[in-house]
Amino acid sequence: MHFPGIILLIAAALAQPHGSSESQRAVMLPPVAEVQRQAVANARIDLAEASSWKRRARQAAYVPRLQLEYGRRMRNVVDVNVNDNVYVGASGVVVGPEDGTYSSNQTGDNSFGVRAIWELRDAVFNTDVLAASAEMRNIARERNALIAEVNKRYYVVESTPAEVALLARLVQLNPRKDKAMHEIFLRGVACEESIAELDALTGGWFRSQVEGPVCEIDKISKKEAKR
C-alpha cells in the first residue's frame, strides 16, 4: 500500500466511532515523575548523600590523626671487680690470694605516648575530595540512565491502548488483517514487558498503581479475528 493510501486509511479509522463502552474504559497511570522518584528510591540512589561525602572529605583535613606509641627497653648491668693482693716483706714478695666480686642487674622500662598529627595540606588539595567527586559523577550517570529507562518503558505502556485501538479500527478497513493483528499482538507483548520492567524498577509499586486495561489486547484480537 502506498503512503498516501495509509494516510487515508488512518484518517478513515480515526473518523470511525469508538467501539463498545468496554473499549472506552479509562486507563489511569501514575505520573511519570512519580514513577521516576519511586525507581530512584528503590535503587537507593541519593545524590544528596554523595554530596555529603565531598563535604566530609574537606572537613577531614582539620581532624587530627591520633597515633599511639608503646616502647619497652631492657638493660643489663654487669659489674666484675678483681683485686690482686701483693705482700712485700723481709721474707720476700707474696702474691695472692685474689679477691673478686661479680654482680649482675637487669632493669626494664616501659614508655607510652599519644600524638595528634594534622595533615593541613589536605585542606588545600585532598585526593579524597577528587574520589568523592568522581563517585558523584558515576551516581549521576547511573541515575540519568535509570530515569531514561523508566521514561522509555512508561511511554510504551501509555501509548499502547491508543495504538491498539487504532490498529483494531484499521483491521476493519483492511481486508488483509494478518499483519495488523500480528502488530496488535506485538504491541501487547511490548506493553506487558514494559509493565514488568517498571514494576521491577519500582520494587513492585508500579503495577499496583495501574488502573484499567492497559495491555488487554486479547479481546480486541479475538473480536476482530471473527470479522
SSE topology sketch:
Layout: H1 3-15, H2 32-42, H3 47-59, E1 65-83, E2 86-89, E3 92-95, E4 99-117, H4 127-173, H5 178-201, H6 205-209, H7 218-225
What does this structure look like?
The two termini are 21 Å apart. Helix 2 crosses helix 4 (127-173), helix 3 runs antiparallel to helix 4 (127-173) and helix 5 (178-201) packs antiparallel against helix 7. The chain has 227 residues and is an alpha+beta fold. Residues 1-25 and 220-225 have low confidence and may be disordered. The longest helix has 47 residues, at 127-173. It has helices at 3-15, 32-42, 47-59, 127-173, 178-201, 205-209, 218-225, and strands at residues 65-83, 86-89, 92-95, 99-117. It is built from seven helices and four strands. The strands form two sheets. It has a two-stranded antiparallel ribbon with strand order 1-4. The chain has two domains: 3-55 and 122-225, no CATH class; 65-117, no CATH class.
Keywords:
two-stranded antiparallel ribbon; single chain; alpha+beta; disordered N terminus; 2 domains; 227 residues; disordered C terminus
In short:
By secondary structure, the chain is α+β, with helices and mostly antiparallel strands. The protein is 53% helix and 20% strand.
Within the largest sheet, what's the order of strands? Answer: 1-4
Mean pLDDT: 75
Radius of gyration: 45 Å
The main sheet comes to:
2 strands, antiparallel
Would you count the extended β strands for me?
A: 4
Strand content: 15-25%
